């Protein structure tokens, strides 16, 4: 039972949507706590030096203009709650020096001292305050003005290092890496670019990402200035856990024996855009300054857009919005970017704490995106306020028309934005920062664009040797058999296991001197990218021999072969550039991240089509045919004259019929192009088989007989033109041959290009299998040399890691 009567719309919605009883109880408890007795102070103390300015000092009554206001910084109308205290608190919250009340209900804020020539006798301000009728709140174009108690804030400007100045005591930096995902090789490359023996790396890996953590443990053992945090959290976008992660890390750093001067937080998506030497000189010149980037807009607008006045609860790896909350009064609120460069004295203060730190820490436990406001607000209100520099040392690739698509709705009850990945076309934007005080850029993703990272690294550290292997290749793990916290996609396991089985059968047939007894285990799966193009995926697996206890590891290079096919390449269809079905579409990056095409019976397929620009505006129709060749969905789309990538999700009955589906692109009643995709059966869990009667019901659910008849001639003509094979109806005998059926489907959708052996084994050297090419000798295998990402050794002269 909840500890109070929960009636708020947001709380009730969150309770209904939460899946576990534990999460429901947390939501109920916090909803009641915030409503009845908020667990944070109502008022905090502003501790920034203010030149002995006292708050609430009355300046008196002044004449105000109709058009030109005495306090033009900010205005709001508080119809029922305006009072001298409430207006003063509001203006102080925004960092204004002066507050003024006028016409009973109006509150004004500003920074410029009112002209004393506008001073009036107090009797000219004669209207009561609706929030406190014992007080006067100005009059008709007359205003009571007060000092808020803070000085006018001007952010400090960072000094430029002198070109010839040599520092005897250069700063030492802790790079605090907060990592998610599986881009291990890119993290290695980032560490190589930043590394110096005088610096340190403190690394937090999201608690759900075992693979990243295991791989980075290897370099922790090899390098003494790299340490992984054992206090791991699930750092979801916007989550309160990110602030906990950063504060835990700073606490560990203060208590460590490392001798450092600055901490800079970065992610796997960051990369330096100036040399290590340039960064050290700059920070040494600005020792003990603190670098944070402010929001750059009016504070009250920021509070609303950021949701600081909303209560959020984190559980089930999601931020649930459960209602409203009041901000503590008495302090200035600030915020912006959560990428920071903080000095050792300020970090010591954050960790040691006082009433300001403890009060704000409690408040931000129930706040969205806390790391984007906590450090800024502490800095503005602490004794360190004069060390505030409005610069987070980053250039960020914001393209808000693409990045603000509410893409985080699956993890937060809020509409958030995210920057775009830099691509090679953005190079000039990075190059133009050469004379600016920025030292890092984000975001970078090698599975999207490796060229920009290569160009940037050469710009910073010089050219690579001409014969450097796999300079433009990238491998990213998508499955490892040791992973625990993130459950593998069943479709991926089905594809990987089936392709390993097919490859094993082929090898057994081709090499007669030895027989493989069994496929023992699917070990890993990687996506493979070369010159910014997806080049297939790699499956690693273990096999046993019939005449030996020896096990061998093999790796096969596989490729999805179901692509869009244009049947009539004439105007306007000749504008069609790409035509596929996938399981997702990243609107921000305008691409699918599902390179392998993992579509299960419970996936909502996404149709992606890309068009070049042209003069004609026209309409195309998409017909979705299930594996029986029957019409399952009809959608029409208007193609504009500009180039575009667009996507659509058809309404298809679940579960999807397993097998090869076909989507026809029809223009003027002729099929101009088509694409196919595989709905993958699962061999890992019990699957759902659809009877003939169920199938008939499902396929008639959306489309009327009239529509089906209307498109029948188009479908028949298409089937005849390509001899479309359709699936037979399932029966009991069919179910008993599920493995063979899955394998037949998989090889109709995927090719196995090559297979290599990881490590030949002496005990089976007479077996022809061991004469397969060694994986390390190929250009495509995940075991192929990758010197750009390898952490090799420390250069004794420079103190950096050797690049190759």
From TrEMBL:
It catalyses: UDP-alpha-D-xylose + L-seryl-[protein] = 3-O-(beta-D-xylosyl)-L-seryl-[protein] + UDP + H(+). Residues 55-149 form the WSC domain. Its main location: endoplasmic reticulum. Its EC number is 2.4.2.26. Pathway: Glycan metabolism; chondroitin sulfate biosynthesis; Glycan metabolism; heparan sulfate biosynthesis. It is found in: Endoplasmic reticulum membrane; Golgi apparatus membrane. InterPro entries: Glyco_trans_14, WSC_carb-bd, XYLT, XylT_C. It is a single-pass type II membrane protein. GO terms for cellular component: endoplasmic reticulum membrane; Golgi membrane. It comes from the Eukaryota. Keywords: Disulfide bond, Endoplasmic reticulum, Glycoprotein, Glycosyltransferase, Golgi apparatus, Membrane, Metal-binding, Signal-anchor, Transferase, Transmembrane, Transmembrane helix. Belongs to the glycosyltransferase 14 family. XylT subfamily. This is protein xylosyltransferase.
